[in-house]
Design a protein that fits this description.
Helices cover 23% and strands 9% of the residues. By secondary structure, the chain is α+β, with helices and mostly antiparallel strands. Among the domains are: 40 residues, no CATH class; 66 residues, 2-Layer Sandwich (Alpha-Beta Plaits), CATH 3.30.70. A hairpin with a 2-residue loop joins strand 2 and strand 3. It starts with 11 loop residues before the first helix and ends in a 35-residue tail after the last strand. It binds iron/sulfur cluster (2 copies).
């Protein structure tokens, strides 16, 4: 809706949790709007549109890694399954014979998927690496410079010179 939709629909959530999930979505949206001071849907509709950009203009030197708060983790395993099967196999399930979920920084690409599937609020954070830090996945030092896909060295079709 913040991208301008006047209505939304869900499928998988209703199949998994039943139609009651719709009531929870309504009360959740209402609570969120109250916390932000919005009174009507018109006030949020389309509000994020100015932030939309083409993916090729995203800063590829902005590197994030998922971090799991072990004190909050209930060991449900959802993050492991999601990352293992559909992302980059970057979350453990067992460590030293114990059920333990931690991010392997050398494999994490910062896709954010695990945050979306974790049922515990704030259990998984995306942490931004500061310029000068080493990205354990690529072995590269994080640059402070903006570099999008049109001129990033990873792009073999790059035609532009860095601006
Ligand atoms: S951010 Fe993506 S790659 Fe990193 S641990 Fe989470 S799901 Fe895996
Ligand atoms: S999804 Fe969240 S709570 Fe479940 S194992 Fe992963 S980090 Fe822990």
């Amino acid at each position: 809706m913040v991208l301008g939709a006047g209505n939304v629909q869900v499928c998988t959530a209703a199949m998994t949790y039943g139609f009651k999930i719709v009531q929870e979505m309504i009360s959740g949206l209402s609570a969120w709007m109250d916390s932000k001071g919005f009174r009507t849907l018109d006030e949020i509709s389309g509000r994020a549109v100015p932030n939309v950009t083409d993916w090729q203009y995203l800063n590829l030197n902005h590197i994030t890694k998922a971090r799991i708060d072990q004190d909050l983790c209930i060991k449900c395993g959802r993050c492991h399954i999601a990352c293992e099967d559909t992302s980059h196999q970057a979350i453990t399930a067992m460590v030293d014979g114990e059920r333990h979920f931690m991010v392997k920084e050398e494999d994490c690409v910062g896709c954010n998927l695990c945050v979306n599937v974790c049922p515990v609020e704030n259990c998984i954070d995306m942490v931004t690496l500061a310029p000068g830090e080493k990205d354990e996945r690529t072995g590269e030092i994080v640059s402070a410079d903006y570099a999008n896909w049109t001129f990033h060295p990873n792009n073999p079709m790059s035609t532009k010179i860095a601006e």
